[in-house]
Design a protein that fits this description.
Chain A has 232 residues and is α/β, with parallel strands linked by helices. Helices cover 34% and strands 26% of the residues of chain A. In chain B, 21% of the residues are buried. The chains are: A alpha/beta (232), B mainly alpha (122).
């Protein structure tokens, strides 16, 4: 089976800015991977490229061996950094919305998660707090049976108790052939669920390693290593 | 089971230690069926591959065994668990002696103190 994500000499330039420069990266299946870097390092650019929302300036990005497009969108479940669900929808409408869009969407799973987080499916999106909206969106994304879950800052706005539940949701809902790519700078909160980390700095990949290797070789947590590498 | 993990040391080693501690303290009883890897991972909030690695290691040393169709079990070998208890006690004592040394007590003085405290109840 081919790698779920493969970047070859991938670059993305905006007029005055190089967001990604010559990135070579291969991600295997069955892993939970942290895409870690400070603000403005290129995390979101990378994620937008793999979802086909941006086009590379040079080089290539392949998802399951294919260029980003309708075929890859079937197997990639994407949580963008911003919410996009219409305000007028009830939570239950958003579930139907996803059901219509994605054949791999499991509405039973979504409803179970809503219940666990005590979210009332009859509430409208516009009445929800920022953190609650994020929870709903994450529930929708994790209720798909995708091959690649691509989560851009999934835990930024939610409280610590819900954070634990969300991490559990990630652990229990992905299958052995699926990979979860999580972009964040809240490393301490998620590092125990990661297999691998990718450090990104000024548009370059500076490290791609197993987290247990980091702990045994460096004798420190990924969070500590990150603080050292990206010291201001 | 309460899991307490830090991120400074390899997580799978800490998982092994804590499952061993669970076996010693009786949270996991001889012959008990273990929850699935995924459930254990969710309970400890760790990566399922890391939990898998810890269980494989416990299997390798014989504390846990896998049955192809019905999952993983704690060993029923009481002698093995007794041995594990002995090992763990020894580690605790060596650690204690080391810390007493740092306080300036020789092992003999430590032993005398311990004997005295055990005899007099405090």
């Amino acid at each position: 089976m081919s790698a779920i994500l493969e970047c070859k000499s991938l670059s993305k330039k905006f007029t005055a800015l190089t967001a990604l420069s010559n990135v070579n990266l291969t991600l295997e299946r069955g892993r939970i991977i942290g895409l870690l870097g400070p603000n403005g390092s290129g995390k979101t650019t990378m994620i937008k490229l793999l979802n086909g929302l941006l086009v590379p300036t040079s080089g290539s990005i392949l998802v399951d061996g294919k260029l980003p497009g309708p075929e890859t969108k079937k197997i990639v479940s994407y949580l963008p950094e911003k919410t996009y669900l219409p305000d007028w929808m009830k939570i239950s409408d958003t579930i139907e919305f996803f059901q219509d869009f994605y054949p791999d969407f499991d509405s039973k799973r979504a409803n179970e998660m809503l219940e666990r987080l005590h979210l009332d499916a009859n509430r409208r999106m516009k009445t929800l707090s920022k953190g609650t909206k994020e929870k709903v969106q994450l529930i929708l994304v994790m209720s798909r049976n995708a091959d690649l879950y691509c989560l851009d800052e999934p835990i930024g706005g939610v409280d610590p108790a819900a954070r634990d539940y969300i991490l559990n949701t990630i652990i229990t809902n992905y299958n052995e052939n699926a990979t979860v790519l999580i972009s964040t700078h809240l490393i301490a909160d998620i590092e125990k669920i990661l297999d691998e980390v990718v450090f990104i700095k000024d548009g370059n990949i500076t490290l791609h390693a197993s987290v247990e290797d980091i702990r045994s070789k460096e004798g420190k947590s990924v969070d500590t290593l990150f603080r050292e590498v990206f010291k201001c | 089971m309460q899991w307490e993990l830090d991120s400074e040391r390899p997580v799978y080693i800490q998982l092994i230690e804590q499952i061993q501690a669970g076996i010693i303290s009786g949270v996991f009883k001889p012959g008990d069926k273990l929850p699935s890897v995924r459930d254990l991972a969710a309970e400890a909030t760790v990566n399922p591959n890391t939990m898998q690695k810890a269980l494989s290691e416990l299997e390798r040393i014989g504390l846990v065994y896998a049955n192809r169709t019905s999952g993983r079990f704690i060993t029923s070998d009481e002698a093995m668990i007794t041995k594990l208890k002995g090992q763990s006690a020894k580690e605790q004592i060596l650690d204690f002696i080391e810390r007493m040394k740092q306080l300036g007590f020789s092992p003999e003085e430590t032993l005398a103190l311990v004997t005295d405290i055990v005899k007099n109840g405090r």
